[in-house]
Structure formats: C-alpha cells, structure tokens
Design brief:
3-stranded antiparallel beta sheet, flat
Length: 72
C-alpha cells in the first residue's frame, strides 16, 4: 500500500498534514492548495521510509592503540 504525506505550509506555518493512498490523491491535494497565495506543499512517500531496526547499523571500527588516531 502506498502512503504519501502532504504537508501544507503558508508563510512557514504548517496548515495541514494529510495522508493519501495514491500519487493521484496527493496531486489533487497539492492542486487544491496551490491556488492560495503564499502556500507551499511538501510531499513525502512514507512507504519507502525505514523503521527502527530495518537497517543494520554499522558497528564502530575497533581502533588499535598503535594505529594513527587510535586510543592512547
């Protein structure tokens, strides 16, 4: 399922946040708001965002004492 978030701002202030199920729905929301002066819209596809634990976090490299920049 596609989930797209549209955030509507006027003069830097968030007016509305709307979740849409398709690109077409999101485009309609943007079109409706774009007629007002000073309004900007940001659109994000939330279906491609990762949740905590989805990505393996790299482990820090072990620094050896005799390597440059290593522990002393």
């Amino acid at each position: 399922m596609t989930e797209i978030e549209v955030r509507v701002y006027q003069d830097g202030r968030l007016l509305q946040r709307q979740l849409c199920e398709s690109e077409e729905d999101a485009a309609t929301v943007v079109d409706d708001w774009s007629e007002l002066a000073g309004v900007t819209c940001e659109v994000d596809d939330l279906s491609v965002r990762h949740r905590q634990g989805d990505i393996l976090e790299p482990e820090p490299a072990d620094l050896l004492e005799d390597e440059p920049g290593g522990l002393r």
